[in-house]
Amino acid sequence: MELRSGPVLLLANPAARRAAALLPVVQRAFRAAGVSCEVAPTERPGHAAELARERAGGYRAVFVLGGDGTVMEVLDALAHSGIPAGIIPGGTGNLVARSLGIPLDVERAVGVLLRGRAKRMDLGVTGGGRRFAFSVGAGVDARMIAETGARSKRTFGAAAYALTAVRCALLPRSFTVRAVADGEVVEREAAAVMVANSGGVLNDLVTLGPGIRSDDGLLDLCIFSPSGSVQAAALGWRLLTSRFDEHPAMLYRSGREFSVECDPPQIYQADGELLGSTPFQARVDAGAALVIAPDV
Question: How does DSSP assign 173-230, residue by residue?
């Protein structure tokens, strides 16, 4: 994809964990590549979406420097517009950037994206209309978000989430989940339930399930049901080594529309943002985003 022939818009969230400090580095990288880049800083939640809607039409592409919340604002605003979005990781988790294989080093990220290719990417949509790129879920993943403190995130970055995730996974709290995937009802005890759009976590260090892709027009229900810490550790090893042969603690269903209920109700999250308590619904918005991905 040739981006050097026209100006690009860079939406930067100075409130994101690393974005304010990294903005000068990103600007230098664009200048070094000979690309005209206009910076528009965000000032409040929702502002990135407003700027994308108002200004994106005058540029070859829109780049985003910020965390996953800012990224999703922009992907939502540009959905089905045909305007490509380039994600420069500037937050704590950087789930979307990692899932696309974008380097966390922002100078490298700019170079990789300028040499990259535009690709269609599915997005999920919750019942409340909130789009997500990675997953929506309850249980271990939502507990990880809720129980990781702001100070830990500032100090340790993504490692803070990883440490909390290990603790939550090894001390699972079970609940009853009733999920409907394209009309098929599944009910079982679980420690985590997710509807995933992308399968790779932490640059594919962990894989959530078999064949989960963000460009297949489907979402994937993942239910994890370990009975105690020993089986939870064994389940974690399976996800690390991508072993998805039949196992009583793992259940998968692909589909386009889902609903999830939990007893007792559980907090749930989408792409790292806590949204409330279950139940939740999710559906796929096939090919909604046009993102710039590394040309591998």
Answer: --EEEEEEETTEEEEEEESEEEEES--EETTTTEE-STT--TTSS-EEEEEE---SHH
- Write the CATH number for 216: 2.60.200.40
pLDDT digits (tens, 9 = 90+) for 145-155: 777 766 665 65
Residue 276 belongs to domain spanning: 131-284
pLDDT digits (tens, 9 = 90+) for 24-42: 999 999 999 999 999 999 9
Is residue 143 domain-shared with residue 30, that is, in the same domain?
Answer: no
Q: What is the mean pLDDT of the chain?
A: 89
What gap in Å lies between CA 243 and CA 248, rounded to an integer? 13
- % the chain with pLDDT above 70: 88
Q: For 23, phi and psi rounded to 5 degrees?
A: -55, -45
Q: What is the rounded CA–CA span in Å between residue 114 and residue 293?
A: 9
Helices (H), ranges, the chain = 19-32, 47-55, 68-77, 95-99, 106-114, 140-147, 150-156, 158-170, 229-241
Nearest-CA neighbor of 123 among 6, 250, 271? 271
- How far is C-alpha 92 from the geometric centre of its chain's CA atoms? 12
Tell me, yes or no, whether 108 and 142 share the same domain: no
Closest alpha carbon to 226 in 106, 139, 109: 139
Region of poorest pLDDT, from 16-20, 240-244, 292-296: 16-20
> CB count, 10 Å around CB of 161?
22
**Is 123 part of a structural domain of the chain?**
no
Whose tokens are 């409907």? That residue is 180
Which residues partner with 260 through β-bridges?
179, 280
Determine the Cα–Cα distance for residues 255 and 196; give it in Å rounded to an integer.
11
Query: Would you call the peptide bond into 264 cis, given omega within 30 degrees of 0 as the criterion?
Result: yes
Is the same domain home to 192 and 248?
yes
